[in-house]
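To the wet lab folks,

You asked to see what we're planning to order before we commit. Fair enough. Below is the target structure as tokens, and below that is the sequence we designed to fit it. If anything looks off to you, flag it before the synthesis order goes out.
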């Protein structure tokens, strides 16, 4: 009698579906050239004690040092002639990004003290010329754009979460006699820092939620939506009127540009969230309403901050009247302020809270970028700088409208870029450069310039997203057709 012994069949692993994930070394090789672009964004999470008084122009944050390294890194790769950053700027990009240098040089040379104007020349050159040009040269495709933009959302959530905690525990900057103003890690001497970062993150998250990248994982849309909603609270608790106005304009524009049907759904959801937060739970409703109302209180008992702002605006216009062509020179506003300001201007703003003692912060700028440039650089400077910004906005909008008409194009990058540009141009009506968050402004202008000047052609189809934590699809199968977009700069 024959006995047959049955042995169980070996359990084979289930075949992997989809392209294999690249190894860790492959991911590092893919992303390390763009890490210097993301470094200034990430390092803004590092607390920095921003000084007070006239010496603030010499303060250098960790993010500023990362920006300098970014420019140096790009310059080295450009000289070596290999890899991303080794190709020269296109003629259009060189003109748009380089034309502000003309106004800066003229304002520096014609200043009463050219040596004192040099720090301003370097700062403007960093924010509006060198850093944006380095970003344009180092970004290779839309995946790099999304990679950097994703860190804006991460940083906004970190700073915004800390700001909400400051409001809830009354450990923030002083506002109306209470330490409730959310300022994140920036302290009471830079109350705009956290609000700027949170606003950037909200604009980026809104763009991702409304138009996820082609081939994006399913979690991208709900995660981006949740992030955009969550950032409403820290932005509200910042009590920054200029950031509120700029964010409302930018987010509304992004919603409308995403499409009519999408806009209706998004606006309905936004109204519902606002009703629940403010109407249902009463989240800061009285203080926020009073803050909003103070924007228009110019003659009917305005608060001192409104009086100071309009007084400094009038002083900036007076300086321009004296020197209409070239202005009073870079860093010249503080020296000429008292000679053009009325008696209604206070000696400074009161700052306290967030772990700091009471101190007076001098008013060294008009808190309006356009008037600051007009007063210090005259018509030459404002024409060059504002003309460059207008070209970026027009070029970005043109590419976005073209990308929307083609399936698979990087319209998500266009929404983010145009939204960021609109936010910046509106916010410059109520603020100017200064503080640690200024380094982030240079990265923002770089992203905008990449999309507007050297971004992907609208008809090219993307191969997948690249957000922090997302897995980039691997190479195509041997029999698959090659995609031209994967082998040339500016592809999606």
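Sequence we intend to order:
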């Amino acid at each position: 009698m024959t006995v047959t012994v049955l042995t169980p069949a070996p359990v084979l692993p289930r075949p992997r579906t989809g392209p294999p994930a690249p190894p860790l070394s492959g991911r590092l090789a893919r992303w390390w050239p763009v890490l210097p672009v993301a470094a200034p964004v990430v390092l803004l999470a590092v607390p920095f004690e921003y000084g007070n008084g006239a010496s603030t122009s010499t303060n250098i944050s960790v993010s500023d040092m990362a920006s300098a390294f970014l420019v140096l890194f790009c310059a080295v790769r450009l000289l070596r002639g290999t890899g991303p950053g080794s190709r020269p700027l296109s003629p259009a990009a060189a003109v748009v990004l380089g034309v502000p240098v003309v106004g800066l040089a003229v304002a520096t040379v014609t200043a009463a003290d050219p040596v004192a104007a040099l720090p301003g020349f370097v700062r403007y050159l960093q924010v509006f010329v060198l850093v944006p040009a380095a970003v344009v040269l180092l970004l290779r495709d839309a995946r790099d754009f999304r990679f950097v933009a994703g860190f804006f959302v991460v940083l906004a959530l970190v700073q915004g979460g800390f700001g909400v905690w400051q409001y809830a525990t009354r450990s923030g900057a002083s506002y109306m006699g209470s330490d409730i103003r959310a300022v994140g890690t920036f302290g009471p001497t830079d109350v705009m820092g956290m609000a700027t970062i949170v606003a950037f993150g909200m604009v980026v998250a809104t763009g991702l939620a409304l138009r996820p990248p082609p081939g994006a994982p399913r979690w991208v849309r709900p995660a981006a939506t949740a992030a955009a909603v969550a950032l409403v609270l820290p932005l509200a608790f910042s009590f920054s009127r200029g950031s509120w106005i700029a964010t409302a304009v930018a987010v509304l524009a992004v919603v409308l540009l995403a499409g009519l049907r999408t806009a209706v759904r998004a606006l309905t959801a936004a109204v519902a969230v606002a009703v629940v937060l403010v109407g249902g739970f009463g989240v800061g409703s009285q203080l926020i309403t009073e803050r909003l109302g103070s924007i228009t209180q110019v003659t009917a008992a305005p608060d001192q901050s409104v009086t100071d702002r309009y007084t400094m605006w009038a002083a900036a216009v007076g300086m321009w009247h004296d020197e209409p062509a070239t202005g009073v020179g870079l860093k010249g506003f503080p020296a000429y302020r008292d000679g053009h300001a009325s008696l209604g201007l206070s000696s400074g703003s009161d700052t306290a809270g967030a772990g700091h003692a009471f101190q007076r912060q001098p008013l060294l700028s008009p808190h309006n970028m356009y008037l600051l440039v007009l007063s210090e650089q005259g018509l030459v400077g404002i024409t060059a700088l504002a003309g460059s910004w207008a070209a970026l906005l027009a070029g970005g909008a043109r590419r976005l409208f073209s990308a929307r008409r083609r399936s698979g194009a990087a319209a998500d990058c266009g929404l983010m870029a145009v939204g960021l540009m609109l936010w910046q141009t509106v916010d410059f009506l109520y603020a100017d450069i200064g503080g640690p968050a200024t380094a982030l402004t240079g990265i923002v202008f770089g992203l905008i310039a990449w999309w507007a000047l050297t971004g992907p052609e609208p008809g090219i189809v993307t191969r997948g997203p690249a957000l922090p934590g997302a897995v980039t699809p691997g190479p195509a199968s041997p029999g698959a057709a090659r995609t031209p977009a994967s082998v040339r700069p500016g592809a999606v």
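Structural context that might help your review: The chain is about 60% helix and 5% strand. The chain has one domain: 32-471.

Thanks,
Computational group
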